[in-house]
Amino acid sequence: MASPPRCGKPCLTPSLITSVYANRDYEPYARQRDREVMEFLGSKGIPFHAYKDHVIFEELEVAKGDGSPYTVFTPYSKAWKERAQKDITAFAHYPSESLTHRFFPTAPFSMPSWETLGFQPEAFTFPDRVVPEQRIRAYGETRDYPWMAEGTSRLGVHFRFGTLSIREKARKAWGLNEIFLNELIWRDFYAMILANFPRVEKQAFRPEYDSIAWLNDERDFEKWKAGKTGYPLVDAGMRQLNATGYMHNRVRMVVASFLSKHLLIDWRWGEQYFAEKLLDFDLASNNGGWQWAAGCGTDAAPYFRIFNPTAQQAKFDAKEIYLRKWIPEFGTPDYPAPVVDHGYARTRCLEVYKAGIELGKKGFSGAR
Ligand SMILES: Cc1cc2nc3c(=O)[nH]c(=O)nc-3n(C[C@H](O)[C@H](O)[C@H](O)COP(=O)(O)OP(=O)(O)OC[C@H]3O[C@@H](n4cnc5c(N)ncnc54)[C@H](O)[C@@H]3O)c2cc1C
After folding, report:
1. Among all residues, which ones are annotated catalytic?
2. Residue segments in the chain with a per-residue pLDDT below the cut of 70
3. Looking at the domain that runs over 207-361, which CATH code has it been given?
4. 58-87+128-196 maps to which CATH number?
């Protein structure tokens, strides 16, 4: 090893680096970054090794018979499970997971405090990495109810930051609850879509949807962000997001549908807002979720299926537990009237979507 650096604090010089190891990232920006890092290191004669870690199966590891990527979830998940059944290493521990004693040794140094790094204390409780087996077993019955604090795993933030191995969780889910396993496969699916169709980062997966004439009313957008649309499930969800950095999946679907279909605001505005607020933000899953809700993605519900936020409220929060938790002024004159009438918004959405899609099919784009 070369003599220690003279910069007075721990630092790395190229002469100390013999090779670089990293996990693969499938976001377009990250791919470009990793290419540049690899080229830079290559110019210094230093090899760069990238490995799969973020997902179970990446890119084209689960592909159609002709080698092309799946674009529909159900056949993808079937092929995913077949592949996992044949390949016992799919869920195996990586050797690196038990080799922490071989990490590069450094002299002890004190960690800077959060405050000196510019962070402020928050009342947020970080979800546990260990989820009781019973919660996973009951997942199919509990996952749709936003008022249930323990109806879902709350593991998203751990997968996002790599503080829990996706292989470990999939290994446990296999045989325990197929509905839960399917959710983990959705995560792989969206990462696979982003890796194979990087254009979805900026465009609708179905190009004809990029001709929709969005209204993009800034005042409506502000009301949506603040949880003041007058639709309680939408408002409760947005307030939960603003206060905690988390929103229940059922409510994510409803607020996303509401923004793109009821308010006719470009789904990319909402996607961006989620990216700023969600602690479990993941470009692939967020983009996939938004495109699904707006009707323009892979596997999307047809655009003429429009969630009724009031009916969703009645079905999934019948006792108003979730809405009263997040909207203390509900039922008082302080709570706003609906920003738009549901029936009117529905008809308007159908007309605007239909016209946009027809334009798009004729090759017009960018009506935004
Ligand atoms: C508009 C919209 C935006 C979304 N944005 C994100 C995002 O930025 N990051 C993110 O991880 N998920 C996103 N999702 C998916 C889903 O809402 C969250 O993964 C889930 O709510 C996280 O809570 P949980 O960990 O309790 O999930 P659980 O219900 O316990 O599910 C377990 C895990 O499965 C995965 N998963 C579950 N549902 C989905 C799904 N539909 N798509 C992809 N993976 C899924 C997640 O990794 C999740 O942690 C979004 C969904 C929608 C509709």
Report:
1. 183, 186, 214, 249, 267, 290
2. 1-15, 97-101, 123, 300, 365-368
3. 1.10.579.10
4. 1.25.40.80
